[in-house]
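Moderator note: this is an archived Q&A kept for reference. The question asked for a predicted structure of one protein chain; the sequence and the answer are reproduced below.
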Amino acid sequence: MKTLTVDLDSPVPVYEQIRTQVAALVSLGTLNPGDRLPSSRDLARDLGVAVGTVQRAYRELEAAGAVSSRPRTGTVVTAPAHRRSSVADQRSFADLATQMVARGRELGLDDSAILDVVTGLLQQPVDAPSTHVQH
């Protein structure tokens, strides 16, 4: 599995950083159904965080249908029920997002500002016309 990282100084809770990274790996097909995630204890040790933090991330992933946790088999990736696009489409979108992040950084935006822009866009109704602010 790709190495996960956490930023202990980030305003984003550590469990959410873990959840988001694993969900992205599942969405992009880097983690496939049947792939086993590290145990909560092992991942917590590797990241330098509490076991309960990893367990919360895994619980939220399980609630979203991205993983399944069972005694003796551990936490295993499942096929997300909400997946409506192909892995190729998701990778194509990830390429566009990578370009967007790079452009934001070129413009001097920090990661928090980039996330704020994306979060704001995601909160708009799907059929809402896009709005552009002119400066």
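Archived answer notes: The longest helix spans residues 87-106.
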